[in-house]
Structure formats: C-alpha cells, structure tokens
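Protocol step 4 of 6: structure prediction from sequence.
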Amino acid sequence: MPRKKVQPPELAVEAPARKPRARRPSVPKAPAVEAPVAESPAEKAPKRRAAPTSKGPRGLIIAEKPSVAREIAKALGGFRFTGGFGESPHFLLAWAIGHLLEFEPPEAVRPELARRWRCENLPVIPEAFRLVPRSERGSGE
C-alpha cells in the first residue's frame, strides 16, 4: 500500500478561499411551437423557391473573387447564378478578379515626392489612409 505524505502541522498550508463564480446570464427560452394544422395535398407538395424578382431596389454586393462570392451566397442563401453574377430577391452578387481599391500613392500625400524621393521626406505617413480605385498596371507589377 502506498504511503500518504503528511506534512507536519507547522508546515501545513491552507488553500486560499475560492471566490464564488459569477453566474452566466440566463438565456430566455424559445416560445413553444404549436403543432402544424393538417394540410391539403396541394399544400403538402414541395414548395419551390420563388424566382428572384426585379421589383423594388436590391442591394449590390461585389466580391473580390468568385470563391468569395460563393461563400457570401452560401451564407445569405437564396441565390441563383446566371452568367457572371448571382441574384436573390434582395441582392445582386457580382465579383471581380483581384483588388479593386488601393491606398492613395505617396505622391498624392506629399507632392514633393513626385519629383524626387529623398530620405528627409520619409517616412510618408498620411493623416488618413484613403482608398482610390486601382490604377491599370501591366502584368509585371
């Protein structure tokens, strides 16, 4: 039988008293759901989603790339994809390939940098970082 370690009374250390844990706020219970009323055979048929309508204003969502657009569509639900965009009753979802915006160039923040860059003009830290439409660049940049 293994021996128990016993500390002499003068070396015994009392454990600090534990603080009571704060209780989590109670979550309200969901309301009771009533039993469904008997449906006619026509009502039992699988319901089709209504086709998106163009009545009324809809929001436009532009994603960075197609995979991001698919994730957005999955999260929001109800999208039908035709051609290069998706539509739902509430949104149009399109995508680009690559970034559409970039930070404003340093020359716009400090005009003296347009002529020549010098160490005494650095660092260039604007008061506000503004985004501008991305400039057209060749494939090498």
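Step 5 (inspection) to follow. The chain has three helices and six strands.
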